[in-house]
Design a protein that fits this description.
Largest sheet: 8 strands, parallel, barrel
Distance between the termini: 13 Å
CATH topology: TIM Barrel
Pfam family, one: AP_endonuc_2
Low-confidence stretches: none
Protein name: Fructoselysine 3-epimerase
Helix content: 40-55%
CATH class: Alpha Beta
Strand order of the largest sheet: 1-2-3-4-5-6-7-8
């Protein structure tokens, strides 16, 4: 299992710190957060992609996953007018282009909140329409989309393994795959391992973090309530060899370098 560093927690630091730390702390790859001031897709298109390529080469640290910010500010393809949806889709197409150019295998997408007054029928129609359009483009440029389920605190669209499986049944493509962030199933009392059973070969990525059991807060591995040691043992048992990003987001912004080191040390101890 390859372990990745997520750069969102470094957004108040130079992006180079994340690449430097990934190398010196023993991470295998970078999952690159696509928001300003670092790797916002339009900024990459305007020349910042060269900085990312330089960092990849200098630190010998590949970007395996590109995760553009699109959970409301300013893009969310699940809410607002058709023009707002179209703008978000165009943005994510550009994100896929940039992900492919930097050598990433995947661009990660997570359908955000669709609004409290939106009906289930409207939600599902918009989701499938959007994913078909995005997947068609992924096929065109030969790039893969990872679709992520969020917690119910974050979204009312796609929050379970069943939701992901339903999307894959309606949008059939080798260029659209799935993943499991450990927090959504844990806080909903859903089986984490059921993702592997329900998604089968579509299950290609993990966000490995810990949880307080009640909120969407992402906690350093080993410092929350998740039985991570046993989870790692099950992953070994089923032979999971995919990617696993330690997704520290905003809870540790003050000292990302301290916590990125502690996070991988904790996870490796659990793996041993």
């Amino acid at each position: 299992m390859k372990i990745g560093l997520f750069t969102s927690g470094y957004q108040r630091n130079p992006l180079e710190h994340a690449f430097e730390d990934a190398k010196r702390f023993g991470y295998d790859y970078i999952e690159l957060w696509g928001g300003r001031p670092h790797a916002f897709a339009p900024d990459l298109k305007n020349g910042d992609i060269n900085l990312v390529k330089r960092l990849i080469e200098e630190y010998e640290m590949p970007v395996r996953v590109y995760t553009p910010e699109h959970n409301a500010y300013p893009y969310n393809f699940m809410i607002g007018t058709e023009q707002m949806r179209s703008d978000a889709i165009d943005y994510l197409k550009l994100a896929m282009e940039m992900g492919k150019e930097m050598g990433a295998e995947f661009t990660l997408m997570s359908p955000a909140h669709a609004g409290y007054l939106t009906t289930e029928e409207e939600i599902w129609h918009r989701l499938i329409e959007s994913m078909k359009e995005l997947t068609d483009y992924a096929e065109k440029i030969n790039h893969k989309i990872i679709l992520e389920a969020l917690t119910p605190m974050e979204s009312n669209v796609c929050t379970t393994a069943n939701d992901l499986a339903r999307v894959f049944a309606q949008v059939e493509s080798d260029h659209l795959v799935g993943m499991c962030d450990l927090v959504p199933p844990f806080v909903q009392h859903e089986s984490i391992m059921a993702y592997f059973d329900k998604l089968q070969d579509k299950m290609q990525h993990l966000h490995v973090i810990d949880s307080d059991g009640t909120s969407d807060t992402h906690v350093i591995p080993g410092e929350g309530m998740l039985p991570l040691k046993e989870l790692v043992q099950e992953l070994n048992y089923i032979g999971y060899v995919g990617t696993a990003t330690i997704e520290l987001v905003t809870a540790y912004l003050n000292e990302p370098r301290f916590y990125a080191r502690r996070a991988i040390n904790n996870l490796k101890a659990l793996m041993d």
